Amino acid sequence: MKLSLSVAENWVEAPLKQFVNEARVQLAVLLNPSGQVLGQYGFASSVDVMTACALAAATTASSAELGRQVDGKPFSGLHYAGKVRQIFLGQVPTAKSSLILLTVFDEESSLGLVQLFFAELCTAISQIVPPEAPTTPALAEDFERELNRNLSAMFGRS
Amino acid sequence: MSSPFTGLLQSLIRHRGVTGCMVVGEADGMVIDSSLQIGVNGDAFAALTASLYRKARRAAAAAGFGPTGFFELDADGGRMCAAGRNDLVIVVIAEPRVNVGLLRVEMLKALEALA
Question: How buried is A24 (Cβ within 10 angstroms: 0-12 exposed, 13-18 middle, 19+ buried)?
């Protein structure tokens, strides 16, 4: 089983690694709003990452719209506490658009710690994200190719 | 806006040398109520302190010391004290000159309010 950090974009590695180490999370994946993965930690296979990214992108889009309806602006974070594991889903603002972080943690961490180090991740990413970074959704005809390219970069052939 | 913990926090913040006090969820590290002087990052402090308290409690239990009652951290620039009950932790941030003995008594008394 491969449970290390892997990235599709090099600039993601340092801030994601720092977040994982400090927040003591079990899983983390950074993606763009269309569901394309930029970096992950803790996932065993590309299929799991693909599923997590699709669900994270869909959930973020739904909660953002719900926020617009309720509060006039998109909700920026979502937390679900299960009996053993918890999920935090947050938007990482960048100059051009925003990215999404999905993370899973247990009693080794806490929501407070995750939020604290998520704020630091946001600051770090906003400072280093290159202008040409793929933060905007890929065109429909490029989506699958881009998705496969990123997954291959992290897991090799799966 | 007051909470069930307002009185408890007011009695702690009145002590000379205390710069902030909070009631924090032990499991999630979130601030439930607080009284802080300007310049204290309450959210960060709460998250890190709750984590530290949780780990200290687990370490004490692993060593066979039983439940942790009072936890104190000394640094050059100040002190942090924590005491918990029922998944809640009372956290006090203080200057080095604070009377820790008195503060400890007050915090243990305040714990009764969390029962």
Answer: middle
Residue of A nearest to B44 (CA): A116
* Number of domains chain B is built from: 1
Domain with residue B25: its CATH number is: 3.30.450.30
Q: Can you say whether residue B88 is alpha, beta or left, with left for phi > 0 and alpha for psi between -120 and 50 degrees? A: beta
Answer whether residue B1 is part of any domain.
no
- Tokens describing residue A45: 């296979």
Note the ipTM here.
Answer: 0.81
Determine contact: B87 vs chain A, CB below 8 A: no
Q: Which fold is adopted by the domain A5-155?
A: Beta-Lactamase (3.30.450)
Does residue B48 sit within a domain? yes
Choose, out of A85, A110, A115, the residue to mutate when testing the contact with B (most B CBs < 10 Å): A110
- The pLDDT tens digits for B69-99 are 788 999 999 999 999 988 999 999 999 999 9
**Domain limits at B73?**
6-114
pLDDT single digits (tens) A70-102: 989 888 889 999 999 999 999 999 888 899 999
Judge whether A40 is closer than 8 Å to chain B, CB to CB.
no
Q: What is the number of other CB atoms lying within 10 angstroms of the CB of residue B102? A: 12
Q: What is the pTM of this model?
A: 0.83
